[in-house]
Queue: 2 jobs
Job 1
Amino acid sequence: MDLARYEVLDTPREAAFDRITRLATHLLRTPVAVINFIDRDRQWGKSAVGLEDTTAPRHDSFCAWSILQDTPLIIENTATDPRFRNNPMVTGAPHVHMYAGAPLITPAGHRIGTLCVTDSQPHPLSAADIQALQDLAALVVSELELRARNRHLGLELDAQARLNADLRRSLEHARVLEGIGQLLDLDLSPEEMTLAASALLGEALQADYTGLVIFQGETLQVQAAHHHPRVPAPVRETLAQLPGWSSSVTRTLRQATAPLYLDNYPAAQGAQAEAVAAGVQQVAWLPLGTRGETTSLLITLRLRDNPVPHWRGSDRALLDAAGRSVRAALDRRMLLEASRQEARRDALTGVLGRRAFEEDLAAWEERGQPFLLAMVDLDGLKAVNDREGHAQGDRVLRVFAGTLKAEVGEAGNVYRVGGDEFVLLLATSDEEFLLEAVDVAMVAAQQVAGLQGASVGTAQSGEARGEELTALADARMYEVKRRRQARRAEVSIPG
């Protein structure tokens, strides 16, 4: 309804309407002028001259009769009108002898109240007086329309101001997310990447402290990424110890999958007295997921004197978006690492492949510590493939490679670099250890099919570098192979 649209009921007095009632008393020479609005159950006055309060039940309202017609309601003597002679405003105070009310008609044609004048004694009105009353009633409606438009414009301006503030904050948050995205492209460890991202978040959120919480087994540690300069050093030290307390809220969130925001940390179950004493007021925990044996959380704190009184919707949106970005980046990094490791492996045997050997050889040489490089070639695999089929030959390779890897253990790596060729990098110069491991692997492989043996050539890291070192071990391996073949040929010649 129109009256509700104006939102005028029960509002304070306003100068624009008071001017109209004062003008009405002046033009019509009456002691009382009132702007009344008619609600469902009552009459309520927005402005009055000559009366303090015009609120009355609707059934006692003169104005409730006025809004039943489009033209002014004029009652020269209320005591003789059967509708009003028993009205308390006629029989008591204020004594109304003459009443004249012009309906307030909105542009939509609804009558929502009146501009009325009264007198406690006879007061005849001329046609000019009645016209003036109607004109002033029309001014009331015009003022209502102007007031509604101004209020609507004010709301739009407020909304635009809030939108502009939100846009500025969104732009700032977008820059933070862009910065996080750029961090994720750098060659950083997951911990380094997360700490750098949390530092950016701490600035954008006006946080007092932001840290990375890491669970590894039953061990929990926190790494601070950001603290505001206003935070005293003793408080920073206290905050850094928060996650370590066995009954802290943080420890209960190890398996959490959704963020948790507390605006009143001191009232939370599990709140630590030391944290409350340090001034912690708001806390946000952002789960970053579990990868392998490591679970990580981002924790952000605001102290009691922080200018931001609570976690705003934009704060939560930024943290949620940042959490998704960091989690996705960590998952992507894990997948990439898994893919990289998979690409380093030989698909048939499960040991490392040629690509891994080339990468690792360079890395081992870069470390500068002595190592042994060995080339191993299986003798007789082609005969197995020709005699028993390639599937059987593949089983031989898998058994030999798996056993050799188990025998070498932590002492080095095993690589398959060709059909029946293997390379080993060993953090030892003990060739006997190597030959024993090869012998054990060969015995296991011969349980599958009849191999003739394995030819082994070695080179110490100090003899050459890179491809030259590999070529040296390869040449020695082929020399061993030639001698083995020559001995077998001698044995096969009849004496």
Job 2
Amino acid sequence: MTLTSQILASIMQRLTEIHGRELAIEYFPEQPATYRLNHPTGSILISYSRSNFLVNDAVDATLMQRELTIPLTLVFRKLHGEFGVITYLDKIRETLTGFKPPHCEQSLKPISESFLAQNMGIWQYALDFSTTTSQIQHYDYVLSEHL
């Protein structure tokens, strides 16, 4: 399993442990246009959107700081109240803020949240988190070039 996949899996496991009885916790679908909310309350869809890399000054190796953005899409049947998406935005933020996925140097921190859409009584919100890890050059490849 790749590093990014391990980070996403750990976020899924954390959300499932805490909210799995109340909500569906899933990866963002391959075919978003055909996604159907089957859960009576709502679903959290986990994805990966981008990384930013900070340049290092080392001349003998490539070691870079990698800042990942992990977007969550909340898909809910209600907007307000105990089982509404607004309540769960707060709950999910509390669940993941400070959680440190494997291979990460910083804990998750929320960076933005926003309304996405409402269609036929289904509410969608985005909640984005970031964390950092290191991107290190693959040494086997570098060593084989010099042999």
